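Chain A, query sequence.
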Amino acid sequence: MTVSVILRLAPAAVRVGRLAGQVELIATGETATIRDAEELLAFLAAAAAPPADDEVRPRSSPG
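Chain A, predicted structure.
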């Protein structure tokens, strides 16, 4: 499975060596504010996890 995201970094945080900003999952438009790499990885892991039996996730078209 491919997970595509947009990562918007907060310039002030990056200037001081921190990872902070917002991440958006392309397929669904879901967004999250991130304050460090751990939060980014948690978002990506959840996005890549197979959906539960009762959950339906929209799929993006290839290309």
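Strands lie at 5-9, 21-25, 31-34. The CA atoms of residues 23 and 32 lie 6 Å apart.
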